[in-house]
Write a structure and sequence with these properties.
6-stranded parallel β-sheet, 12 helices, about 325 residues, Rossmann fold, about 45% helix, alpha/beta, disordered N terminus
Length: about 325
Amino acid sequence: MRSPRKAGALAMFALLLASCGGKADANGDALLIAVIPKGTTHEFWKSIHSGAVQGSRDAGVAIYWKGPSKDDDRDAQIRVVEDAISRGVDGIVIAPSDNRALVRPLEEAVKEGIPVVVIDSPIDWEGKVSYIGTDNYQGGVVGARALAALLDGKGKVLMMRYFEGSGSTMQREIGFLETVAKEFPGLDVISANQYGGSTTESCYATAENLLNAYPQIDGIFVACEPTTFGMLRALQDSGRAGTIKVVGFDATDKLLEGLRTGQLHGLVLQNPFKMGQMGVQAMADHLAGHPQPKLVDTGTVVATKDNLESPEIRDLIHLDFDRWLK
């Protein structure tokens, strides 16, 4: 049975979809898909939101976008999942903030007949329809090789982690460390156990402590937007930006400016827009009875100062959010 809250909210949308070939359930209600990001603060999530909006337009469904403000607020994300269940949504597309803590609420959703597509961050759970996102381990491999190339395969390096339980960044960090150990014996990882936390401020504080503790380093790897920006700020404030080779993850205006000015040396780029778009489309197709692949890799590429203007990179970094979010 549909909840009264959903029925009232979607009445006009259902009429619109009917006029343009959109999808509706057996009761004539417009299909409503909850899209639940890990957080809503960083630009990465704006890209996923934009993609989800495009996916809803492509599939002719409605989306309900809601998530916690902080990426590590597991309890808040669980509450959002529970709210989506109570609303009687037709499907959930989620980037889990924790690879274990979200299993129970997502199992509850499935018990209520609400299927789940996971995007961005993997989860230790077989009940999902599909996982759509970066091959995060491979992202760490790519990051390790990029940093090794910058250092000619030798030197002292450190890695600052994100936060415990973040499945996507944990896989990148493992990929980085295992690739360095296997392929680059000349690289000495002198620190790899410090966590930045879920905000740029906490990442900045950890980065500052690391730079003070290890003044003689040649290279740094950081595995997501907040850690990359926190490290960049700490390097700038210490007067060492540009003197230490840094490979980070994701792209914002400030990170791209760091790349252009030589204060950052490589950014492993994901395709968050594609994750949001394909996540919503996959759920709509699943609800229409079409089988979905269990795993879809949305790809990675390394941006450098030299390739920023290439078509491949420009398509990833120049998104007009207003086109989808206003």
